[in-house]
Design brief:
elongated; Helix Hairpins; 84 residues; exonuclease
């Protein structure tokens, strides 16, 4: 098996506008990494590379989610008189 391509989807929070990976692409690749690890049949070195890639993808997904939450919070109207 080949090692995961870490250059193609390097973690760059900010999403497509920042030139980084999308949440959906990162999540799909993470699911593939998990599937490959669960299936077994790879060497220890390949398993370690997959695990490292999975950790990187999980961090990317988390950063993208945090960015989305920040954008939602910034778009919400500030509470004022009569608003809760």
């Amino acid at each position: 098996m080949t090692e995961p391509n870490t250059e193609q989807t390097a973690a760059r929070p900010g999403g497509p506008a920042g030139g980084g990976p999308t949440f959906e692409d990162s999540r799909a690749e993470l699911e593939d990494v998990v599937r490959r690890l669960e299936a077994g049949g790879v060497t220890l070195e390949e398993s370690l590379a997959l695990w490292e890639r999975g950790e990187e993808l999980a961090r990317t997904c988390q950063a993208l989610l945090e960015g989305a939450r920040a954008r939602i919070a910034a778009a919400e109207p500030a509470p004022g008189p009569g608003r809760s």
